[in-house]
């Protein structure tokens, strides 16, 4: 597996020769490049050293990668604050807590156990912008190494920010801890044997929730495919039913994505994690006469738009990618935003996907409405998303196909900030086509009222695309 480089960091499989995956040589090179570009982002007064926070999930290679990252930072004359085993949102917040100049998260998110990655943060604890990320990539490829002398080496300290993160979540005005405690929820938690097994039970206990733990030992030996999709959560679904729990919660290895299971063992559906949280926050804002703006990426469900507009708010779309969503959220002063993969971003806490925030807000909504999960889901607009792809032998065809599709559907609403999204407003359907950054394919997402209609819509657009290819 070759190394995958992007503006938000690098990821790859552990092991093999340079170029085959994420090796120690790659780690040193990219950490050095990150340090070398810090002055252009955040100049410091003379005599002061940069401080960088480092946190990791529980995957098997984490401790090894952490040692190399911390050592390289020290060699660059940078002080290091090691968070140890920490969720991605905890590490993001730790940048602010420690008054640091940036952060590096060591996680390959939902990728399998043999993967790892370096995700790069700015001084706000948010992902680098496209320009900043590109500067790191350029430096890694073209820069010359120039490490500090022995008298200028950085230092290392360790601090656990987990409880401070939980304190901040519980202090949010919109979190109704009293209502959650009164509801007496029983929850089954699947933390896929990573850091969610450390922080999430603590949060739930402080909310007065009985937590039945499933795969909560942070060994890094993932009990199943770590992406929180229905096909990977059968044990969680079965345990919810068997224990008569009120709901199930699944998080990915770094705890920035969140999925719920209903009391009957059926998925609440990952797309509706954000919808449920947004519904609650929009209702609070509307009751107080506050402006409402929400944001999600182009491949996320239309249900968020429908819910937002039902409260008199305005919905905005952004290109795929967390940094693009947060950038748009800053621009429109969004109340809530995120991604359809279960990523909830609530700026009142911080501008990063945070499953702890998502759980606390969702349970507040459920407790106040005094509904079961299945009853709550029925109150939301019902849509289904189908996913497909077109594989191409010639990647150069992709841009032509997307350009011609815009012409073919010129009578519909077209959004082209990230590939091509075609909105069929009269049918409340859409198709989003975007090229992969890593292989010669076009990813195709289509949404409609039912799964059959979504599949049919995707196939319709694929047929048009194939005619363009043959023409």
Secondary-structure blueprint:
Blueprint: E1 4-6, E2 9-13, H1 24-36, H2 38-41, E3 51-56, H3 62-75, E4 79-85, H4 88-97, E5 102-106, E6 115-121, H5 130-142, E7 156-158, H6 162-170, H7 177-183, E8 186-190, H8 196-206, E9 210-214, H9 234-243, E10 247-251, E11 258-261, H10 271-287, E12 293-297, H11 303-310, E13 314-318, H12 322-332, E14 336-339, E15 343-345, H13 355-369, H14 373-378, E16 384-391, H15 397-408, E17 413-415, E18 420-424, E19 429-435, E20 441-448, H16 451-470
Parallel strand pairs: 3-4, 3-5, 4-7, 8-9, 8-10, 12-13, 12-14
Antiparallel strand pairs: 1-2, 2-6, 5-6, 10-11, 14-15, 16-20, 17-18, 18-19, 19-20
Helix pairs in contact: 1-3, 1-5, 6-8, 7-13, 10-11, 10-13, 15-16
Low-confidence parts lasting 5 or more residues at pLDDT below 50? Answer: none
Report the biggest beta sheet as strand number plus sense, adding barrel if it closes: 7 strands, mixed
Strand content: 15-25%
CATH superfamily of the largest domain: Alpha-D-Glucose-1,6-Bisphosphate, subunit A, domain 3
Question: How are the strands of the largest sheet arranged?
Answer: 1-2-6-5-3-4-7
Oligomer: single chain
Question: Residue share in helices?
Answer: 25-40%
Number of strands: 20
Question: How many domain modules?
Answer: 4
- Radius of gyration based on Cα positions: 22 Å
Instruction: Output the CATH topology of the largest domain.
Output: Alpha-D-Glucose-1,6-Bisphosphate, Chain A, domain 3
Number of helical regions: 16
């Amino acid at each position: 597996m070759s190394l995958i480089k992007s503006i938000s960091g690098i990821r790859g499989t552990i092991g093999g020769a340079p170029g085959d995956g994420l090796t120690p040589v790659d780690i040193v090179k990219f950490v050095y490049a990150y340090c070398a570009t810090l002055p252009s982002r955040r100049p410091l007064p003379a005599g002061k050293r940069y401080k960088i926070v480092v946190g990791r999930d529980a995957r098997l290679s984490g401790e090894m990668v952490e040692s190399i990252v911390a050592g390289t930072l020290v060699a660059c004359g940078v002080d290091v604050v090691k968070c140890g085993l920490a969720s991605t949102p905890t590490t993001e917040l730790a940048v602010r807590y420690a008054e640091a100049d940036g952060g590096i998260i060591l996680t390959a998110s939902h990728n399998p156990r043999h993967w790892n990655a370096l995700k790069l943060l700015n001084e706000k604890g948010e992902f680098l912008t496209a320009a900043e990320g590109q500067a790191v990539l350029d430096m890694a490829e073209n820069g010359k190494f120039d490490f500090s002398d022995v008298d200028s080496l950085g230092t290392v300290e360790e601090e656990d920010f987990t409880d401070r993160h939980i304190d901040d979540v519980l202090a949010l005005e919109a979190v109704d801890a009293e209502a959650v405690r009164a509801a007496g929820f029983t929850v089954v938690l699947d933390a896929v044997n990573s850091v969610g097994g450390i922080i999430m039970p603590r949060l739930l206990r402080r909310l007065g929730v009985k937590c039945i733990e499933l795969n909560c030992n942070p060994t890094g030996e993932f009990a199943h495919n770590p992406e929180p999709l229905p096909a990977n959560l059968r044990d969680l679904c079965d345990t919810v039913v068997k224990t008569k729990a009120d709901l199930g919660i699944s998080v990915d290895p770094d705890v920035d994505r969140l999925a719920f299971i209903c009391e009957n063992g059926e998925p609440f559906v990952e797309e509706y994690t954000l919808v449920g949280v947004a519904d609650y926050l929009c209702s609070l804002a509307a009751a107080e006469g506050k402006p409402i703006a929400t944001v999600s990426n182009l491949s996320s469900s239309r249900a968020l738009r429908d819910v937002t507009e039902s409260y008199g708010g305005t919905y905005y779309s952004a290109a795929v990618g967390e940094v693009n969503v947060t950038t748009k959220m800053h621009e429109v002063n969004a109340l809530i935003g995120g991604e359809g993969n279960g990523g909830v971003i609530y700026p009142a806490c911080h501008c990063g996907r945070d499953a702890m925030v998502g759980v606390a807000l969702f349970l507040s909504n459920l407790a106040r409405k005094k509904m079961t999960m299945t009853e709550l889901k029925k109150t939301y607009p019902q849509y289904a998303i189908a996913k497909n792809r077109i594989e191409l032998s010639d990647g150069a065809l992709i841009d032509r196909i997307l350009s011609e599709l815009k012409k073919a559907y010129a009578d519909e609403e077209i959004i082209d900030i990230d590939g091509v999204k075609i909105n069929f407003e009269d049918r409340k359907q859409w198709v989003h086509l975007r090229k992969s950054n890593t292989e010669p394919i076009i990813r195709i997402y289509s949404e409609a009222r039912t799964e059959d209609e979504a599949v049919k819509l995707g196939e319709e657009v694929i047929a048009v695309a194939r005619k363009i290819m043959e023409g």
